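Researcher: Structure for this, please.
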Amino acid sequence: MVRSPQPSRARERRADAERNGHAILDAATRALTANPAASMADIAAEAGLGRVTVYAHFDNRETLIDAVLERAIANGETMLDGLALPEDPADALALVLTSSWQLVSEANKLLAAASTALPPDRIRELHQAPAARVTDLLRRGRDSGSFRDDLPLEPLVTMIHVVINGAAADVRAGTLTPETAGDFITEVVLSALQPSRPRPELRGRRPRGPSAP
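Model: Predicted structure, token format:
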């Protein structure tokens, strides 16, 4: 009796598991994009697999959403890595912001699902690479005098993250259109980064108000 070599069967099982893993991630991306509240059963149905198979790869919905968001951010970073950035730091940051918005817009509902399923610290951790890219551009802008240098870097990076995610929330709420959000984000961020000007001397000035009787 001839038996198939054990290593061959093990390789086939690994290949099947890998294909199923990719299929689940693809299905989860589609399902969560259509409905941020999509359940594990919804995702299994979208993938054409049983729930047991899905749970064999991902312990729970949070773990699956974490993996989906991690992959989406990694794919976005690959795209941003390919950008030919202008020499001027402000122009370079504007291009990164508009390109980042395109990625966020495509994954808006996925981000909505992640915001309810994952803790804020984990979401910030997953965005470390995009944050590092922005931090480098801010440093370049400071060195060239294009950006203000009177405020710490980390809060400025956080501000940019908040502006982008706030715009995404407004798009979901219908108070901002996806087509105008990129320009809105760029204008707000670049305005906030303008080099600071000396404040006028206020000493000795009286506050304006109604004239005394």
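Researcher: Any notable elements?
Model: Residues 206-213 have pLDDT under 50 and may be disordered. DSSP finds ten helices and no strands in the chain.
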